[in-house]
Amino acid sequence: MRLIMLGAPGAGKGTQAKKLSDKYNIPKISTGDILREAVQQGTELGIKARTFMDSGQLVPDDVVIGIVEDRLKWDDCRNGWILDGFPRTLQQAYALDRMLERIKMSVDYVFNLEVDEDEIIKRLSGRRSCESCQTAYHIHFNLPKKKGICNSCGGRLIQRSDDREETVSERLKVYKERTEPLINYYMEQGLLKKIDSNEDINKIFEKICSYM
Ligand code: ADP
Ligand code: ADP
Ligand code: ZN
Fold first, then answer.
1. How do residues 132-164 score in pLDDT, each as one tens digit?
2. Average pLDDT, the chain
3. Which residues line ligand 1 (CB under 6 A)?
4. Beta strands 192-196 and 28-30: pairing type?
5. What residue's CA is closest to ligand 1, atom 6?
6. How far is the CA of 90 from the centre of ligand 3 (A)?
7. What pairs with residue 110 in β-bridges?
8. Which region holds residue 104: left if phi is over 0, alpha if psi is between -120 and 50, else beta?
9. pLDDT tens, 159-185?
């Protein structure tokens, strides 16, 4: 199963991708997670990406395309994958099409998580993420078992620097300009499944799973 999660920042892509990954035993590939890890480790990639991420801009296409191209070659991708946060521009979508064409594979579904803007803001402003494994929690909607501590790895929960209010509005603007056009792109290819996502996490998951 090869899936793409589309949706605004904070829509719940990572949350649903993680559940799908656990249920179907296929990797969740999140370009945001990979980039944040590189920033934490201070690698060349991280140094390059940091200023873009901190200002709510997209990291340049060639950089993220390279990341995904490498990651899709890993052994664990043989039975499928879930892309979370990629593609985010038409250039990235075209590049993905070319990659898949080369290995004679195709995408099964593109799930577009539709969430009202005021709900998006609530989700982003209350998000807390595990410092070590990046799992997302929420201070009202998705609490960890132990306050401030990640359920799956025991790591510390922090607020991402780009989830602060100043950066959120820029990210939403960038989403509308650069990423929203992908909805039409995948609709025209007959791959898009719209998922009304103004609901709780498990309801959304059920709706997604009904396609699989
Ligand atoms: P969210 O899902 O909350 O928008 P992500 O973790 O997916 O956040 O992304 C965080 C940041 O990482 C983005 O604002 C952007 O700077 C960078 N990024 C992640 N994925 C991509 C991508 N596919 N193309 C360009 N930049 C990306
Ligand atoms: P994205 O990957 O699209 O940026 P996340 O999966 O990180 O989004 O979710 C953003 C925030 O909203 C997180 O704090 C998460 O716990 C919370 N969240 C995710 N799905 C829902 C939902 N259906 N209802 C309420 N909160 C949610
Ligand atoms: Zn963790």
1. 999 999 999 999 999 999 999 999 999 999 999
2. 97
3. 9-10, 13, 31-32, 35, 52-53, 56-59, 64, 85-86, 88, 92, 162, 171
4. unpaired
5. 32
6. 32
7. 4, 192
8. left
9. 999 999 989 999 999 999 999 999 999
